[in-house]
Structures are given as structure tokens and as C-alpha cells.
Write a structure and sequence with these properties.
Blueprint: H1 14-18, E1 24-25, E2 28-36, E3 41-47, E4 52-59, H2 61-64, H3 67-81, E5 91-97, E6 100-106, H4 113-116, H5 123-142, E7 155-157, E8 163-165, H6 170-176, H7 178-183, H8 195-198, H9 205-221, H10 231-240, H11 245-250, H12 255-264, H13 276-289, E9 327-329, E10 336-338, E11 362-363, E12 366-374, E13 383-386, E14 391-394, E15 401-402, E16 413-418, E17 421-426, E18 433-435, E19 438-439, E20 444-445, E21 451-454, E22 457-465
Parallel strand pairs: 14-15
Antiparallel strand pairs: 1-2, 2-3, 3-4, 4-6, 5-6, 7-8, 9-10, 11-12, 12-13, 12-22, 14-16, 16-17, 17-20, 18-19, 18-21, 21-22
């Protein structure tokens, strides 16, 4: 932290906090306040060294005066910063100085899921958000971290609908803080809190699954299931009252989806799904049983006898006006399509190529892309390019790249771009993801020419460049 900034010695009220605007925390220049809550105030800040904007979460000043809290804060921040997953907000830095305890995170520009919940969401949209959140929770749980405060306000959205979980570990920090005990402040958010957390019992990943189920209920109905005049009364309702399933029914939520919500929010942890990946599988199956599919336009259905394993006639392959004799070359697979098509007849990608807006990292003025070339199966020899967003790989509908081999799991791997590198991670597949014959257990950086195994299926990764 630079000298001469005259930071407030007490950040206990909004006036003190707002005095940070226009000043700097270390190398980060505070631009504006973008959020405030019971646990922290969030600012947008500029980092000149990397020419980027970040979000800085500033915790209340009284925590910085507690040496036990500061020690635990550093330990927890380091643990959370190691979580590299496309559905978890990346932590860039953290610190404590002059009675200001802060965390520096990536800046997400689309608001929060809470902002979207002015009314019920369509079932596929709601489930898409919850699956993304479950993906992030699954990564955290596998690394021994329980969120403890899963709620829409902690689910950040990019403008394209990509969801990232934030605030991992903060509830645990405040729960264990000696100063917190003295002031008697409550932890978590009662509207989404599991019965065991409300009773002050030890919590594990199943508590997060309960909270995620309440978020799903909120998405589907536009309201949380339990409300009251006091947080204590809300907590008691979570413990004793049955979920108001009739609200789901009145909103036309399909029965298979309602069954998943009920199991996620079972009063006893043993009766819930025991892991986040089980939630994902259950929601995927419930969508299929309800004759619904995930809403993203670039997700298409596979058929094994088509080149590349994609469906040419799925619900997203609409027609557009224009000269039928003119042609458009698909960005992803290079196939030639009539200009009257909206989506490629070979790979299903949108011909408008709107995801190019994600390509912000350039080399010599050209975006750095990923190319995956399939070496086995019916799609052998087919190459596909991907933008600098998240690419999911798996066997079934709902993935960006569908590989139909039996050794490929329904959800197998994720490929994404960050900080100038392409990353690959396994998402709990049965037969594993290997890079150059070494099995992947955490995100790895890919290099040009790496050979990837999704189960028994082989794919070659190459760095490509856009026009």
C-alpha cells in the first residue's frame, strides 16, 4: 500500500468506506463502489500493471484489528485462490493493511443471479444456472472447501450467462472470528440456510447442496420458500416446515424437476444428493425426462452417423433470409453452409459467430484460439476451433464438443482460456482425462501439440489464431 493515501482508520460506516474511491490499495486504483452487503463492500478497481479492471472486496474494519481473524483470513484466502475452475471467481490477490482487509478478484460485468430473479425463470434457464453453480461447488468440495453461503447474490454472471461462484470461505472465516462472537452477528443467509447450519451444527458439502436447492426453488418460482419477520423464524421454518411444492406445481415445473428440488432440500443431510456431481446428473436426466434441453444456442444434440457427431436437424437449426446461393464458412469446423442457415449443418455452431466477443487476448492483432482435432471414432480427422470462453466436452447433449465414445462420460472435461494460457480440467469423469499420457487431477496448462485422452478417445490440441 502506497504512503500518503490517508486511508480511513475505521471502515465501519459507508462514509468511511466510500472515502476509498479515488485512492489506491496497493497497485489497485479504486474506481467506484459496485456492491455492499452485511459481510463486505465491493469496489471496482483498475490495475495499471496489467491494464485490467478487478473487483476488490473490503471486509469490515473491526476484523482487521483481530489477529486471529487476520491469520485465518490469510490461510483461507490462499486455499480458495488455488481453486482454478471456470465457474469459480478467480482470486488475484489479498491483503490487510491500515485496518483494511481486502480480497482482489476478477471483475464480472453482468451482475448477479439475484438481479435476474425479479420473476420466475424458464425451467431450462434456471437449471442451466444451477448446473453451472454445481460445477463450481463440485470443484470446491473435492478440494475440501465448503461454501457455507450459497445464494443468488454470491453467483456472479457474465453478460453471456456464464455463472461464477464467489465468496468461498468468507462465512467460515466470520463464523470462527472471535470479534464476531463478541458482537453476536449471524452467519450465512437464513433464506437459503440448511437446517443443520441453522441449528449451529457441523456442516459439510451436503449443506451447500441444500442451499443450492433453495436457490433452484427461487429461480423456478421467483420467491424463496420460507419468509418471516425475523431470521430466527425463517430458520425454524427450514428445520420444521415442508417445502411448499404447490408453488412449483403452479408455475408448471415438470414433475421430474420437482423431484430433484425435493431431494436437494431434504431436511436430513443423508436424504439429499451426497455430492454436487450427483445433482448435475439428476438435473440433466430431469431435463431429458421433461423433453427439455439446456438453453444455450451452441449446445446441440449428437447423432453418431454424422461427421463430427452432431445433429443436423435439431431445434436450433433455424432458417434465415438471404440469398440461398451464397455460402458462409463455419468458424468452428470449416464446413460451407448456405447463407440462409443460422447454424452450421455439420457442427451446429452459430454462423453469426457471436462468441468472438470473448476473444480479448491477442497476438499480433489476432485472437488466440484452441483447435481440437479428433483422432479416433467416427469423427476421426475432424477439427474444431473454440473461442476464449468455456468449452465443455462430454458424451451427451449439453456439451460444446460431443464425443460419442462409450469411455467418455456425460460430463468429462472443460477447456478454458485465462491469463494468456489454455487450461484443461477433468470434471469427475469415470475413465479420466490424460494429457500426454499423464492423468489430470487438477487444471493443467496446455501446450501446442499436446495429446489429450478423454477416456479412450484421442484428441490433439493446437493453438490457432483467428482472422
Amino acid at each position: 500500500m502506497q504512503s500518503g493515501n490517508n486511508y480511513p482508520q475505521q471502515a465501519g460506516n459507508s462514509g468511511d468506506i466510500n472515502s476509498l474511491i479515488g485512492k489506491s490499495l496497493g497497485q489497485f486504483q479504486i474506481v467506484e463502489r459496485i456492491g455492499v452487503g452485511g459481510m463486505a463492500t465491493v469496489f471496482k478497481a483498475y490495475q495499471p500493471t496489467l491494464d485490467r479492471y478487478v473487483a476488490i472486496k473490503v471486509l469490515p474494519a473491526y476484523h482487521a484489528r483481530d489477529p486471529i481473524f487476520v491469520k485465518r483470513f490469510v490461510q483461507e484466502a490462499r486455499s480458495v485462490a488455488k481453486l482454478a475452475h471456470p465457474n469459480i471467481v478467480q482470486i488475484h490477490d489479498f491483503g490487510e493493511q491500515d485496518n483494511i482487509t481486502y480480497i482482489v478478484m476478477e471483475h464480472v460485468d453482468g451482475g448477479t443471479l439475484k438481479d435476474r430473479l425479479k420473476s420466475p425463470l424458464p425451467v431450462p434457464v434456471a437449471i442451466d444456472f444451477i448446473i453451472q453453480a454445481a460445477e463450481g461447488l463440485d470443484c470446491a468440495h473435492r478440494n475440501g472447501i465448503v461454501h457455507r453461503d450459497v445464494k443468488p447474490a454470491n453467483m456472479l454472471l457474465r453478460r453471456d450467462g456464464h455463472l461464477l461462484l464467489s465468496d468461498f470461505g468468507i462465512a467460515k472465516l466470520l463464523e470462527e472470528s472471535t470479534s464476531l462472537t463478541r458482537v453476536g452477528t449471524g452467519i450465512g443467509t437464513p433464506q437459503y440456510m440448511s437446517p443443520e447450519q441453522g441449528m449451529g451444527q457441523k456442516v459439510d458439502r451436503r449443506s451447500d447442496i441444500y442451499s443450492l436447492g433453495i436457490v433452484l426453488f427461487h429461480c423456478l418460482t421467483g420467491r424463496v420458500p420460507f419468509t418471516a419477520d425475523s431470521p430466527l423464524t425463517v430458520t425454524v421454518k427450514h428445520i420444521n416446515e415442508p417445502l411448499p411444492v404447490e408453488r412449483l406445481v403452479s408455475e408448471g415445473v415438470p414433475a421430474p424437476v420437482i423431484q430433484v428440488v425435493q431431494k436437494m432440500t431434504a431436511k436430513h443431510a443423508d436424504d439429499r444428493y451426497q455430492a454436487a456431481d450427483m445433482v448435475i446428473d439428476a438435473l440433466t436426466s430431469a431435463l431429458a425426462a421433461s423433453n427439455l434441453s439446456l438453453p444455450r444456442l451452441y449446445r446441440v444434440s449428437p447423432v453418431s452417423n454424422q461427421p463430427g457427431g452432431y445433429n443436423q436437424s435439431g431445434p436450433y437449426h433455424g432458417q434465415a433470409g438471404g440469398n440461398p446461393a451464397a455460402s458462409v464458412t463455419c468458424f468452428r469446423c470449416g464446413a460451407v453452409n448456405p447463407s440462409s442457415r443460422l447454424y452450421c449443418t455439420t457442427c451446429g455452431d452459430e454462423l453469426a459467430n457471436s462468441r468472438a466477443s470473448n476473444d480479448t487476448f491477442m497476438v499480433n492483432g489476432r485472437p488466440v484460439l484452441a483447435r481440437l482435432t479428433i483422432q479416433t471414432g467416427s469423427a476421426k480427422g475432424r477439427s474444431y476451433r473454440f473461442h476464449q470462453d468455456v468449452t465443455t466436452v462430454g458424451r451427451t447433449n449439453g456439451n460444446d464438443l460431443i464425443i460419442s465414445g462409450r469411455s467418455v462420460s456425460r460430463r468429462h472435461s472443460r477447456l478454458w482460456f485465462a491469463d494468456g494460457h489454455w487450461y484443461l480440467d477433468d470434471v469427475g469423469s469415470s475413465n479420466g482425462t490424460l494429457v500426454n499420457s499423464v492423468r489430470v487431477f487438477q487444471p493443467v496448462v496446455l501446450n501446442d501439440g499436446d495429446v489429450i485422452n478423454f477416456g479412450d478417445e484421442i484428441v490433439v490440441f493446437n493453438i490457432a489464431y483467428g482472422p
